[in-house]
Request: fold
Amino acid sequence: MRVAVADDAVILREGLARLLAEAGFEIVGLATDADALLELVERTRPDVAIVDIRMPPTHTDEGLRAAKIIRVRWPTIGLLVLSQHVNTRYALELLSVATDGVGYLLKERVSDLAELSASVNRVGQGGSVLDPAVVAELVGRRRQADNPLQRLTDREREVLALMAEGRSNRAIAERLVVTEHTIEKHVKNILGTLRLPQSPDDHRRVLAVITYLNSQ
Reply:
């Protein structure tokens, strides 16, 4: 899998490139700002672009805006966006552009090579990745009493959180030590309670749920 890396911090940028190369990924190039990233992507057409949200010149959301441009111009390229802190607004802004092949991780996760590799592979294959801390912020947020989220059981909330991390029904069943059929029933109940239509695409469905919850 071919990967482009964009981060203005040389240590993180070079460190990511080395870790990914050691894991078997092909690094097509490195970029220090959003403009350089867009040029790199246009020239090399990687499978995945890893992008820091905050890059020069203002160090606010240049990386996020570049990621959104990439998705519009080259929709098949996977996007793994990195953030120093939990920011649900940034996560949902990214997900509003697309749901397939998109990931949002805290930078603290990238030191774990196995987790980093798995995230890049999942995004490159069209899946989604959401940092558990972001999921907790979205799903655990207090809501008004009349919101349907309040009608979910504790187990359904737990399943929803794992779904939002991009896990399959089988993976959730293994995590919770129950049958896959039980998880399927929980998912059906969650979608019914939240008034969301079922979909054959788990990742799209989960991200739609999160977007819905954040809009209330």
Q: What stands out?
A: The CA atoms of residues 130 and 165 lie 5 Å apart. The first strand starts at residue 2 and ends at 6. The two ends are 38 Å apart (CA to CA).
